[in-house]
UniProtKB/TrEMBL annotation:
Entry GO MF terms: delta(3,5)-delta(2,4)-dienoyl-CoA isomerase activity
InterPro entries: ClpP/crotonase-like_dom_sf, Ech1-like, Enoyl-CoA_hydra/iso, Enoyl-CoA_hydra_C
Family: Belongs to the enoyl-CoA hydratase/isomerase family.
Keyword set, alphabetical order: Fatty acid metabolism, Isomerase, Lipid metabolism
GO cellular component: mitochondrion
Pathway in which the depicted protein is active: Lipid metabolism; fatty acid beta-oxidation
Source organism of the structure: Drechslerella stenobrocha 248
Keyword check for ATP-binding: no
A GO biological-process term: fatty acid beta-oxidation
Name of this chain's protein: Enoyl-CoA hydratase
Pfam families: ECH_1 (PF00378)
Entries under PANTHER family matching the protein: DELTA(3,5)-DELTA(2,4)-DIENOYL-COA ISOMERASE, MITOCHONDRIAL, ENOYL-COA HYDRATASE
Length: 277
């Protein structure tokens, strides 16, 4: 039976074979994240990771105004409950809370199904935290991006500072946007490599994301998920270690029935059909 997804403020749908769309569904609040929403996005990616009907994922936000405006400050308290000194509050309350948020966002990275983020409108704070943990980022020409946390007296603490430095080539630019919290647009994001494509509007961007997700979903799931795993490993390891890990991983993956199926399809000019994982 197909898996079911029932999470507050999210819609999960399968508009085409092998492709899941995860929509942040809180448009009346510009898709701002509550603490429970942060935890739930991790649960969704964790569930999709084991859903045999899912081979690629598109992440988007409901409405026309925002992918997400960031953290909902009205519903989020980063202060302790009182009655404790600051060290005890940090150890017993704030650190576990931040770690749970970080772990939830990291599920996007750990999920072996490739995730395509489609950013539009306001894409602040959590938008950067979340999408930098995904695999492919595209946006609309009117997107407004910002690592916004310093404007509320915080260093971004759910992933932006750790991941941007690995995604973007210029540390100068990363420090510029993270220390100033200035808003920047699609052209600058494309130039710096934060996104790989810019589209006219949300409709066009979402269509492009679905087309790409469909293409990915048509490939061998063993090959695609192996590729994501090896690329993620290689980011943080020397080439020699990456090659060794590739050899170890592919020792098992090369036994897949997908290789003869793909070769046969190539020789006969037919469409290969790969079994679910």
């Amino acid at each position: 039976m197909p898996q079911t997804y029932n999470y507050d403020q999210y819609n999960v749908s399968f508009p085409q074979d092998g492709v899941a769309v995860v929509e942040i569904n809180r448009a009346d609040a510009m898709n701002a994240f509550t603490p429970n929403m942060i935890l739930n996005i991790g649960k969704i990616f964790n569930q999709l990771a084991t859903d045999e009907d899912c081979r690629a994922i598109v992440l988007t936000g409901a409405g026309d105004k925002a992918f997400t405006a960031g953290l909902d400050l009205k519903q989020t308290s980063l202060a302790g409950s009182g009655g404790k000194d600051s060290a005890r509050t940090m150890i017993s309350e704030l650190r576990p809370l931040l770690l749970s948020f970080q772990n939830a966002v990291t599920q996007a990275e750990k999920c072996l199904k490739p995730i395509i983020s489609v950013m539009h409108g306001y894409s602040f704070g959590m938008a950067i935290d979340l999408t930098t943990a995904t695999d492919i980022r595209i946006c609309t020409s009117d997107v407004k991006l910002s690592v916004k946390e310093v404007d509320i007296g915080l260093a971004a603490d759910v992933g932006s500072l750790s991941r941007l430095v690995k995604i973007v080539g210029s540390m100068s630019w990363v420090k510029d946007i993270c220390c100033s919290a200035r808003i920047f647009g699609a052209d600058e994001a494309l130039r710096q490599g934060l996104v790989s494509a810019v589209y006219k509007d949300k409709k066009e961007a979402l269509a492009a994301a679905l087309k790409l997700a469909g293409l990915i979903a048509s490939k061998s799931p063993v090959a695609v998920q192996s590729t994501k795993e090896i690329l993620n490993y290689s980011v943080d390891h020397p080439i020699e270690h990456g090659l060794r890990y590739t050899a170890a991983w592919n020792s098992g993956a090369l036994q897949t029935a997908d290789i003869p199926e793909a070769v046969k399809a190539s020789l006969t000019k037919t469409t290969p059909r790969f079994a679910k994982l």
